[in-house]
Write a structure and sequence with these properties.
The complex is a heterotrimer of chains A (230), B (57) and C (347). With 230 residues, chain A is mainly alpha-helical. Chain A has helices at residues 2-24, 26-47, 53-72, 81-90, 93-122, 135-161, 167-194, 199-202, 204-227. The chains are: A mainly alpha (230), B mainly alpha (57), C alpha+beta (347). Chains in contact: A-C, B-C.
Chain lengths: 230, 57, 347
Amino acid sequence: MGQTLHTLRTAGTVARLEWQLEWRQGHQLAAVGLFAIASVYVAFQASDQHTGAAAWTAMLWLVHLFSGFTAIGRLFDRERSNVRRYLQWSAEPLGLMLGKLFHAVLTTTALTAVVLGAFLLFLGWPQGIESPGKPGLLVLGAWLGGLSMTTTLVFVSAVASQVRNGSGALAAVLGLPLLLPQLILATRLTRGALSDEPWVMLVEYPVFLGALGAGTATIACILFPYIWRA
Amino acid sequence: MNALLLLNSLEGFFFGSGKAHVVTGVALIILAGIAVSLWRMDRRLSQLEKESRSDKS
Amino acid sequence: MKGSWNWFWKGGSVLLLTYVVVRGFCTPLQPGLVSATPSQLSVAPQVVDLVAVGQPFATSEDLPASFDVVLRSGDQLIRTDVVAITPHSVRIQIDVPPTMPSRALDAYLFTPASGTLFLGNACFVEDAAKGDVPPEFSASAPDPQEPDLGFSFPYQPNIMESIRNLLWHVPMWFAMFFIMGLGFVASLAQLRTDSIGWDMRAEAAVKTGLVFGLLGLATGSLWARWTWGAWWVSDPQLNGALVTVLLYSGYLVLRSAMGDDDRVGRLAAVYNVFAFVMLVILLMVLPRYTESLHPGKDGNPGFNSYDLDNSLRAVFYPAVIGWGALCYWMYTLRLRMNRCAHHLLSR
């Protein structure tokens, strides 16, 4: 009981520290937002508002994926090295992981809002679709897809941070194949939400995406103590 | 090459005699793949042998 | 004791694979109809050739009178006369009726030795009117014969002779999964004990498994080109296979990026455990949510619903065991090689 409480307190402290760090170094958050908006704008320029549903979905998830990489990929090695050493020796691994996960979930939520907002602002809905049949499902899918990508990315970022020199490219190499299942489900869900498929046929996608996110988060929490303080 | 790629008829190398040559192709790929992996292990072992010899002397 | 066991399984795998190769190539394929020429008919008497592949369905001594061909339009049968037969084709004389329920005709060939051969949408009649087949053109179905086909592989449209690939391509994936599972167990043990021995086992397992995974991809691609018409199709099994190969390539990249860092074993083990769990999710669960061209669909990634008949089964199971044992053999060789290398370098 006391152990659980201690873990949760650590998690809270880490999440608060992350949050403060994020605002103190505002440029990182701004960089991610800028990256997202700029890539949406590139997509808009290339497609000239005549985009079919398939291309629209592809671009949405490409932007979402790489914005996620930019935001989460370096989650574990952005503290200055003395802060990191302090965390490494003082913080409990599980608490640290939970704190980072919580922070990543918040970041992803914000990121989903930015990406979707920019998409609707610049590109609008795909050609031939005045307004999608299920906008709620579309937003839910984008959010859940983002979340289930994020939990995996947090884990990959933790692994990559342990490797001396060159963790950025390494995170991409390790992360992209691990993210494919989530992306396959998420793109199908988005296509379904844009089409006139009945609601009931698609309900299993968000359920499975959520389960995938929760599952990967659990495995990440179980495995994290082995890589931290290794 | 044209004969290899002929589609929608029973002519062409891989379609002739009811696609039996597809099986030949698949078997050759597998044998070649295993041979390549053996060859690579062989090379690594030769390297190790050389190192162990130079260690002794 | 250990020595004789080694002889047993290594020799056994070679014997099994020899049996599989010989049986796989020598077993005849049951005959099947592949096409009708001409396939466009008009309302008039004309001659059509039905072409078959596989084991000859007729010998040169067989008489046309012992064969029977009827064409089906909708739910009605049309009479034909067999005029000539060769081992791989039958020539029929047909008087196309002016009215029929459907313009697309299916062909049934009744043979004395090979049973009934079927060809869906064999011919198309351009100028027939819709209506019942007049009684003078119609036929009654002959009694179905169920001859003993002996030890032979089943004919499937479009797959044809390439059904023999089942003994080459599919065991690659079984072997890979088996050896990756071994690597997963080794990685779990590595996390518990933190010993170099388990790490070397995991590394050797992943490297051997990757060889088999790459072979599975290459052979699958070749097979897909001549059955589905493309080198690569979007299919849950293919996505899963590609992701598997990418995942384990990531494992090797991680190892080489770590260099001689002494945490490499533990970090690689953590990644391997995560990757394997992801792989199981991907290969077992994802196909249930999407359609597949692969057999055993309808939410079942296995092979239960593939019509593996008894002949195929008698070769397929030995193939899986034989290739699995060969894969394990390659794994032990690599492991012993790595042990020697480690020994040599740490002196």
